[in-house]
From TrEMBL:
PANTHER family per UniProt: DEOXYRIBONUCLEASE TATDN1, TATD FAMILY DEOXYRIBONUCLEASE
Species the sequence originates in: Chondrus crispus (Carrageen Irish moss)
A GO term, aspect molecular function: metal ion binding
Key words, A-Z: Hydrolase, Metal-binding, Nuclease
Lineage, broadest ranks: Eukaryota, Rhodophyta, Florideophyceae, Rhodymeniophycidae, Gigartinales
Protein's name in the database: Uncharacterized protein
Annotated transmembrane regions: none
InterPro entries from the UniProt entry: DNase_TatD-rel_CS, Metal_Hydrolase, TatD-like, TatD-type_Hydrolase
Binding site for a divalent metal cation 1: E95, D205
First and last residue of the signal peptide: none
One GO CC term on file: cytosol
CDD domains noted in UniProt: TatD_DNAse
Residues that coordinate or bind a divalent metal cation 2: H132, H157
Family indicated by similarity: Belongs to the metallo-dependent hydrolases superfamily. TatD-type hydrolase family.
């Protein structure tokens, strides 16, 4: 969508540079481009190498796990080659996990071995994991728990689970990724409220998962941008229905309101958590410095 193409039809010129400029103005300092296939991993690395602020993941999404079925061992080696090629840009293994809401793309039986195979990638590279869990009836948790010694840590992104599930992941020393999809219902808001601040990460998952007016937390959004339909594209406006990295500020605002604390406190915590997990070497050299939301923001999942 950031190439101006929607469902195979070009609606406007590619505008990634405009989007990155807008996110920088909003305070975003690092952006993670998440991949879901081997080809996407290669493309994400190439894109990340074009901009200093971009970093990427390498892995296979559960809905695309069929690409690993015939020869998972060889597929892992191909993914490993991408990691080794982009050592300074690849910051996580993923997006991987299980998704039982979209088994029309890949069955449970094919998703599970594809997920398990990727722990070897995390084990061999020492990278954290960018994880996906959708209504998996305990299977995702059991697999994570059984393989927990094989990876350093990670984030369960776009979290929409229960308070009990959140606590179980936190007990495994994992982090909880919050985006617009995590803020739809009052039950979602309660989970966010109960999630420890030192375990929260913020993300947009753009171009998806925007905070919509129907979402339970939408009334707490303060940062807003003009928007236009893609057929009436203007670089000064967001495209309606397409979220952007800059909107991570909105996620921060809703989380802060749900917890009854300052936006800056959420931004600082999420920033520090993200740096600790995905940019640990840089985080060790940062020390403690004043945090100003006007010039700093949160590295986020794309």
């Amino acid at each position: 969508m950031f190439k101006g193409i929607y469902n195979g039809t070009e609606r406007h010129q590619a505008d990634l540079s405009t989007i990155l400029s807008r996110s920088e103005s909003a305070g975003v300092v690092k952006t993670m481009v998440t991949a879901g296939t081997l080809a996407q991993s290669q493309e994400a690395l190439q894109l990340s190498e074009s901009e200093p602020s971009l970093f990427c993941t390498v892995g296979v999404h559960p809905t695309r796990a069929l690409e690993m079925k015939d020869n998972p061992g060889a597929h892992i080696e191909h993914l490993l080659a991408v990691v080794e090629e982009g050592k300074n840009k690849v910051v996580a293994i993923g997006e991987c996990g299980l998704d039982y809401d979209r088994t029309k793309f890949c069955s449970r039986q094919d998703q599970i071995p594809g997920f398990i195979a990727q722990f070897s990638l995390a084990e061999r590279t020492g990278l954290p994991m960018f994880l996906h869990d959708r209504n998996t009836e305990g299977d995702f948790f059991r697999i994570i728990k059984d393989n927990r010694s094989r990876f350093t840590t990670g984030v369960v992104h776009s979290f929409t689970g229960t308070i009990q599930e959140m606590k179980a992941y936190v007990a495994l020393d994992l982090y909880i990724g919050i985006n617009g999809c995590s803020l739809k219902t009052e039950a979602n808001i309660q989970v966010v409220k109960d999630t420890p601040l030192d375990r929260i990460m913020l993300e947009t998952d753009c171009p998806y998962c925007e905070i919509r007016p129907t979402h339970a937390g939408s009334s707490w959004v303060k940062s807003k941008w003009p928007s236009k339909d893609k057929k009436k594209y203007s670089p000064e406006a967001l495209v309606k229905g397409r979220s952007e990295p800059c909107q991570i500020r909105q996620v921060c605002e809703v989380v802060a309101a749900a917890k009854g604390i300052a936006d800056e406190d959420v931004a600082r915590a999420a920033f520090n958590n993200t740096m600790k997990v995905f940019f640990s070497k840089e985080a060790k050299n940062m020390g403690s410095s004043p945090f100003d939301l006007s010039v700093n923001a949160i590295p986020h999942g794309h």
